[in-house]
Design a protein that fits this description.
Elements: H1 2-63, H2 68-78, H3 83-119, H4 126-133, H5 136-151, H6 155-179, H7 183-201, H8 219-253, H9 256-269, H10 274-292, H11 296-323, H12 325-332, H13 340-360, H14 363-366, H15 371-395, H16 397-422
Helix pairs in contact: 1-4, 1-5, 1-6, 1-7, 1-8, 1-9, 1-10, 2-3, 2-5, 2-8, 2-10, 3-4, 3-5, 3-8, 4-7, 5-6, 5-7, 6-7, 8-9, 8-15, 8-16, 9-13, 10-11, 10-13, 11-13, 13-16, 15-16
């Protein structure tokens, strides 16, 4: 009987990983397709400007929710049998998500002229950022809904919501850019309109039993979730900036053309991270459940098994992508982007090395070790910033590549050490 239960659990886990993979694959393909559309229609410079604006849109995806979506995943997984507490967490999480999304939206709206004119010296970026600012309340609301689905391990619903959004973005972007010839303005509308529509409608997908209830909203629960969100946002902000600081500083020190070249190298190399990111969607609630049961030995085995699977899969995928490098760049973009290949190869090597960390990256939050990832990521951010400031002015794009790989190797050893320490039996 016990063996049958284990088999059912592992079967459920495999199915959930597959749904998470499809969800992230749709996001990854959207990321690639959008750059192909912009690169082919607007050239290297147009792709460079779009990359910076889209980077700020992604910044909103990461932070406008203030970690409430991840908090919902954690607390639902931990208190799976306590229906009343889960309803309180959901009500608080949805309110917190809306408030944080509105704050982030107002901040970007106000700062758009400063970012466009003073930071990047690109005035045409200003209206694009203003349009993007309206997305954040809807992004935040959708992230709360996704957090609820993830906590309940309803990965089919989780994936379906993401896939619908990404397909909508692709088709609308193609329509605005290729058919209506709206240039960068159309490209930004292509992701802004679907984000607002799908995000606004996403709460309708929740079960009536587990949705916002005003009578169950408690300020004390909101405060508890905000504390989690505070540490989560510190960690993820530093982690996100680690991946984007190279693009940002290339845009600052060099030109949109170099940003476009680097963007293509990153776009292709990031195909690798889809698989470990899919695994992370499952490891996060699973480890929260194991930690509640105080199964430190099982957690350690779970960590290293997940990391091993990620490394092996990414090594195979990485070799295939490197062998197809020229073909991918020529067919997906154009000949003018071929200089990106050499940077792509090094970034793929770095992502293979770093893939085990990605598969378990947010699991310290599942173990209530809030301060561990944010301390690691803040230190790594300043290291990344220092390396880029030193290397980009002298080595150009290659300086950003060296900085990224160096940091990935350092983080791999740090995470191995932290996992060993915090999964030791007391």
């Amino acid at each position: 009987m016990k063996k049958k239960i284990i088999e059912i659990y592992h079967s459920k886990t495999r199915i959930d990983v597959q749904w998470a993979f499809f969800s992230l694959l749709s996001a990854g393909l959207t990321y690639i397709v959008l750059r192909i559309i912009i690169g082919k229609n607007l050239g290297v410079s147009g792709l460079g400007i779009y990359t910076i604006v889209y980077m700020i849109y992604q910044f909103g995806i990461q932070f406008s929710n203030f970690g409430f979506g991840s908090a919902l995943t954690k607390y639902i997984a931990e208190n799976y049998d306590d229906k009343s507490l889960i309803q309180k967490k959901i009500s608080a999480g949805i309110v917190g998500s809306i408030i944080s999304g509105l704050i982030f939206s107002i901040l970007l709206f106000i700062m758009s002229p400063i970012i466009s004119n003073n930071v990047f010296n690109t005035p045409e970026m200003n209206p694009l950022l203003i349009i993007t600012s309206f997305c954040f309340p809807f992004i935040s609301l959708q992230l709360a809904v996704l957090g609820i689905f993830n906590g309940f391990r309803q990965m089919k619903s989780f994936a379906s919501l993401n896939i619908v959004l990404n397909v909508f973005i692709i088709f609308l972007s193609i329509y605005f850019v290729n058919i209506c010839n709206l240039s960068l303005f159309g490209a930004v509308l292509g992701y802004a309109i679907p984000t607002c529509i799908i995000g606004g409608l996403s709460p309708l997908l929740l079960s009536k039993e587990f949705t916002f209830k005003r009578s169950l909203f408690e300020v004390s629960v909101l405060k508890t979730m905000s504390i989690f969100g505070f540490f989560f946002i510190l960690s993820t902000s530093a982690s996100f900036l680690n991946t984007q600081v190279g693009t940002f500083l290339i845009g600052y020190f060099l030109t949109p053309i170099e940003v476009g070249i680097y963007s293509v190298a990153i776009t292709i190399s990031q195909i690798l991270i889809i698989f470990p990111s899919a695994i992370q969607r499952i490891t996060t609630p699973d480890i929260a459940n194991l930690y509640r049961k105080k199964s430190e030995t099982k957690i350690r085995k779970y960590f290293f098994r997940s990391m091993s699977y990620s490394l092996i899969a990414c090594l195979i995928i990485g070799i295939i992508i490197i062998l197809m490098g020229d073909w991918l760049i020529l067919n997906l973009f154009s000949e003018e982007f071929l200089p990106a290949k050499k940077y792509m190869i090094y970034l793929i090597i770095g992502n293979v090395i770093f893939s085990p960390v990605i598969s378990v990256g947010s699991c310290f939050f599942s173990m209530n070790k809030f301060t561990v990832p944010y301390r690691i990521n803040i230190i790594s951010f300043f290291l990344m910033l220092l390396l880029n400031f030193i290397l980009i002015p002298s080595l150009g794009i290659f300086g950003a590549v060296i900085s990224t790989i160096t940091l990935q190797i350092v983080l791999l050893f740090i995470y191995f050490a932290m996992i060993w320490i915090y999964t030791a039996e007391e």
